[in-house]
Amino acid sequence: MKRSAPPPVWTRPTGYALKQDPVSGVERADLAIVGGGFLGLSAALHAARRGLSVRVVEAGRVGDGASGLNGGQVIPGLKLEPEQIIERFGPARGERLVGFVSTLADRVFETIAREQLDVDHARNGWIYACHTRAALDFAAERDRQWRGLGADVSLLDRAEIARLTGAEGYLGGWIDRRGGVINPLAFISELARVCAAAGVRIAENERAAALRREGGGWRIALNSGGEIQTPMVIVGANAYSDGLIPGLARSIVPLHSFQIATAPLAPEQLAAALPGGQSVSDSRRIVIYYRRTADGRLALGGRGSMAEPTAEADWAHLDRALGRLYPALTGTTIERRWFGRVAMTPDHLPHVHEPETGLVTAVGCQGRGVGLMTALGPELVDYLVDRDRERLPFPLSPIRPIPLHGFRALGVAAAIAWYRTLDALER
């Protein structure tokens, strides 16, 4: 993420200040973590509590990447539904994975409560809003599967979704009351604070330049000239992955998620827009997602261009979506426009890799990064320390670079444009 990128609507906690702790010379640690996002810092905190010495290096400031730039939706589950997960991974692994992903939101809200984090949050549910009959059928199947596992979920008819969202154009939907919203920048900032208090050493503006195996451990060379020697490494860069792990960046397609936030709305406008405070993702091919903020704004996001934006017009598709959903808000001042980078995998599933012993990474959040990466960090630490593959929620998989990766990215860009056209025709 470029430092000149427009800032999000999210703010850090009042008085936030992370002590600067640059790497000096050659340092040693039990665990080194590249990337100070949800994955890296949740792993670091868990490792420190297990008694490990931990060094985190972050290329920018904590929160500069996707962890501070996302929409703050906390969503349980995966893109695949429980029965699909079990079919794909087999009964034993599949059932464990379903159990893991059912608790993704729990991990976030329990962390906020346990660590007493200063984070605006609400656990009022996540809504899947349906604009077609086919989407309603999908929601009914999703409801059947999750309700059968005891999840607090239910279908919504046309009147119910209109009442809960205040938006126009939906035929019905589905609500998962396990979900909710947070201020993601405050959450990642507070994770950094409690990590530092637990003894984790965090170096900001410290880019890892090279990673090499040496003897029974690893050496991480930094752009600053410093070096970290460690037996275990977690790389948590996700869509910001570069050449540190061969082939990793070419195994994902990086996309940009664009977002806008209105000026604070008047009381009568707030009463009509998401009065219950739920977050929403709709059923369009190019998903539109939205929520209210703690200071009374409406924040709305969706996929943008493959290139980084250069003008306000690059967010015009979100302005149009806002007007379509909430005609009464047409002309409302948009005070913030920002974007972040996300990673798409070909099978729409997260991938966990161990290219060499003692080096692990995870990529591909598929819109569920807040809960997924917060929950996955401690699991990776336990695997590195205990070496029990069966305890990992996701199986380790080889890194598979996408053939003709550059052309695949162009194809995704063309598909986004085509899907947006189809969505517009469906209203």
UniProtKB/TrEMBL annotation:
<dbReference type="InterPro" id="IPR006076">
    <property type="entry name" value="FAD-dep_OxRdtase"/>
</dbReference>
<dbReference type="GO" id="GO:0016491">
    <property type="term" value="F:oxidoreductase activity"/>
</dbReference>
<dbReference type="Pfam" id="PF01266">
    <property type="entry name" value="DAO"/>
</dbReference>
<keyword id="KW-0560">Oxidoreductase</keyword>
<feature type="domain" description="FAD dependent oxidoreductase">
    <location>
        <begin position="30"/>
        <end position="381"/>
    </location>
</feature>
<protein>
    <submittedName>
        <fullName>FAD-dependent oxidoreductase</fullName>
    </submittedName>
</protein>
<dbReference type="GO" id="GO:0005737">
    <property type="term" value="C:cytoplasm"/>
</dbReference>
<dbReference type="InterPro" id="IPR036188">
    <property type="entry name" value="FAD/NAD-bd_sf"/>
</dbReference>
